[in-house]
């Protein structure tokens, strides 16, 4: 089976002229010319990006999904390829309803009529990994039942094995092979795809996002019913709404498009700077609009997480960029550790200025946050920086949000909408509020450490004493060590008093 699959892949690769990606290295340029001569009848008039997209569509669902993942890696992919691959959509025929029922009953260990009073045999959506049916629980609750495609794992493992082979060939035979890091990209896809094959992973993501936005006036997240969830079955609250991309229907329903546009930006920045946890697949197919003008989020297979240092990097860079403080942008890159410490600040500052300054020829309402990030990533790449995957995912999501927001309201000013979030977050992180919050966060560790701290310091002092005596250090050094010890004890006592006051 793997051999026949490999033969098909080779046929598609050469049929669409994708050998130009594989045979760009000087060592095999002659082979590339020979293949072109032998296959001279091929129609290669379409741009290379379009031919790549068509080839992935012909190779089937797993390769389509791989193309979707590639479209998010704009730090690695040329922009023409990333833009074209972003057009890939899952368009997969559904599998039989009887098969879906068998998967549900096997996964949940109960018969369908015990689980649901109603179950629609025709799926409402079908994708490469799963399909969704509408059903009703015995308590009357309408639900969406997501069912994993049966026997998909062997197909995925087979295609992944072939992708690894192709990645090695690309790395060795393409002029850009090493820069594109194809083996790393395939490994990332492997992790992402196996996460998606466990629907409990998606259920947990949905629950977290719902908890973060419970009672929100802007976003609805369906409830997860864990009694009806398993690795290959995911049941959540059914949500009615209008797909956000259907502008005419939204207008006919009396929706406030300007408010929706602003909500989208505010929801995104709330996820990023308040929660550090964001829905990373916010394309129009995954977003509905409820009757009360709130967004409804669907499909939680892909989420991103950000550390406090990630958030600080983003806030500093955005604020510095819009203040045209390119020196601060450069120092933020170096302080974050993503640029080598020996990088000359002035050189990086000049590179950032070259990327960013032309953007200010446009009105603020036309400046793209996503393009700003992309420009910074490209500048960083020149300085041998490996961009963090979570930031690339965030940049892709931000581009989606911007595109959606400006589709709803062409006059949307993202800077005016985002500025309060950035300023509020910086105030919370810097100063006494941030110090007290961090101290409260670390309180359990301090509570456990304080009682044993004098003993630990005493043991360390005795050890240092013995080492100093053996090394023949002067009495002056010994006195310094004692002063340091007492300073540590005083600091510990002050921390204890502060904690006592805090928890009164």
Automatic annotation (TrEMBL):
Alphabetized UniProt keyword annotations: ATP-binding, Cell inner membrane, Cell membrane, Kinase, Membrane, Nucleotide-binding, Transferase, Transmembrane, Transmembrane helix, Ubiquinone, Ubiquinone biosynthesis
CDD domains in the record: UbiB
Binding residues annotated for ATP, in chain numbering: 124-132, 146
Membrane topology: Single-pass membrane protein
UniProt entry tagged with the keyword Glycoprotein: no
Domain ABC1 atypical kinase-like: 87-332
Locations listed in the record: Cell membrane
Enzyme class, first EC level, given as a word: transferase
GO cellular component terms listed in the entry, alphabetical order: plasma membrane
A Pfam family hit: ABC1
Pathway the protein contributes to: Cofactor biosynthesis; ubiquinone biosynthesis [regulation]
GO terms for MF: ATP binding; protein kinase activity
Active-site residue list: 281
Keyword Aminoacyl-tRNA synthetase among UniProt keywords: no
EC number annotated for this UniProt entry: 2.7.-.-
Gene Ontology BP term (one): regulation of ubiquinone biosynthetic process
UniProt superkingdom: Bacteria
Regions that span the bilayer: 485-503
Similarity comment text for this entry: Belongs to the ABC1 family. UbiB subfamily.
Function (record text): Is probably a protein kinase regulator of UbiI activity which is involved in aerobic coenzyme Q (ubiquinone) biosynthesis.
Name of the protein in question: Probable protein kinase UbiB
Species in which this protein is naturally found: Iodobacter ciconiae
């Amino acid at each position: 089976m793997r051999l026949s699959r490999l033969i098909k892949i080779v046929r598609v690769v050469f049929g669409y002229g994708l050998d130009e990606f594989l045979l760009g290295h000087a060592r095999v340029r002659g082979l590339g010319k020979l293949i072109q001569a032998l296959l001279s009848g091929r129609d290669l008039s379409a741009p290379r990006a379009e031919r790549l997209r068509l080839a992935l569509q012909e190779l089937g669902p797993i390769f389509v999904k791989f193309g979707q993942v590639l479209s998010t890696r704009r730090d690695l992919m040329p922009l023409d390829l990333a833009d074209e691959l972003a057009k890939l959509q899952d368009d997969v025929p559904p599998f039989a309803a009887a098969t879906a029922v068998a998967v549900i009953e096997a996964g949940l260990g109960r018969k369908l009529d015990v689980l649901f009073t109603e179950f629609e045999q025709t799926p409402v959506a079908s994708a490469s990994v799963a399909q969704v049916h509408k059903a009703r629980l015995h308590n009357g609750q309408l639900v969406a039942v997501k069912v994993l495609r049966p026997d998909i794992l062997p197909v995925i493992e087979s295609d992944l094995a072939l992708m690894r082979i192709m990645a090695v060939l690309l790395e060795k035979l393409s002029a850009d092979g090493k820069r594109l890091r194809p083996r790393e990209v395939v490994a990332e896809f492997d992790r992402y795809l196996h996460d998606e094959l466990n629907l409990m992973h998606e259920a947990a993501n949905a629950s977290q996002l719902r908890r973060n936005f419970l009672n929100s006036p802007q976003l609805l997240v369906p409830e997860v019913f864990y009694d009806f969830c398993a690795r290959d079955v995911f049941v959540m609250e059914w949500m009615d709404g209008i797909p956000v991309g259907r502008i005419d229907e939204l207008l006919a329903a009396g929706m406030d498009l300007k408010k929706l546009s602003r909500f989208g930006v505010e929801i995104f920045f709330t996820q990023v700077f308040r929660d550090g946890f964001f829905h990373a697949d916010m394309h129009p197919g995954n977003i509905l609009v409820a009757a009360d003008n709130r967004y409804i989020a669907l499909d939680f297979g892909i989420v991103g997480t950000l550390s406090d240092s990630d958030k600080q990097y983003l806030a500093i860079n955005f604020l510095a960029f819009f203040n045209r403080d390119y020196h601060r942008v450069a120092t933020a890159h170096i302080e974050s550790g993503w640029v080598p410490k020996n990088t000359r600040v002035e050189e990086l500052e000049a590179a950032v200025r070259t990327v960013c300054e032309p953007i200010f020829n446009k009105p603020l309402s036309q400046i793209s946050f996503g393009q700003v990030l992309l420009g910074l990533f490209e500048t960083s790449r020149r300085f041998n920086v490996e961009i963090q995957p979570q930031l690339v995912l965030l940049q892709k999501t931000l581009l989606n949000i911007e595109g959606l927001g400006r589709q709803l309201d062409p006059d949307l000013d993202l800077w005016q909408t985002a500025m309060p979030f950035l300023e509020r977050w910086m105030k919370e992180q810097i100063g006494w509020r941030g110090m007290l919050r961090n101290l409260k966060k670390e309180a359990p560790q301090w509570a456990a450490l304080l009682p044993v701290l004098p003993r630990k310091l005493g043991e360390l002092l005795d050890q240092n004493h013995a080492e100093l005596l053996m090394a023949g250090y002067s009495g002056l050094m010994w006195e310094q060590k004692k002063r340091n010890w007492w300073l540590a004890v005083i600091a510990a006592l002050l921390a204890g008093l502060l904690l006592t006051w805090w928890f009164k």
